[in-house]
Structure prediction request, 153 residues.
Amino acid sequence: MTDFSDWQAVFDLSLRYAEAIDRRNWADMLEVFAPTVRVDFSSFSHAPAPAEPVDGAAWVAVVKGTIEGFASTQHLIGNQRITVDSETSARYTAYVQAQHWMSRDRWYLVGGWYDNEATCIAGRWRLSKVAFNQTWDAGDRTLLREVARRVAP
Prediction:
């Protein structure tokens, strides 16, 4: 049987993930991820998920490249169902609603759920798989293209 502290640490990953994104704290966000992470945002991007795990720092850079172009964001993560499979392995499903604001009249909202996996590395839980399953959106999705142009080097 796993300790409740493991469950709490895995629960805390979602909170730290959302807080790091919304506060633009990329160093803290990097601490949420394992050195390599399997990423699947294909339901959102409409592009195939990478076949192989990606570097955690590279994934944080991708997220930063999108988020930094918005004036503000708010990621709400809840309804978490967590299963700690062993001392080093856990998985969870969590609902998400992510607001992306350019201005009061220009925004994009997306919702769905995460199917994530966590691994305990050197005594610290980290996300080793992040899969976003988009079920709805509202507002102006074209803002994503505008943001990409804004933050491009």
Remarks:
- Residues 4-22 form the longest helix (19 residues).
- The chain is about 35% helix and 45% strand.
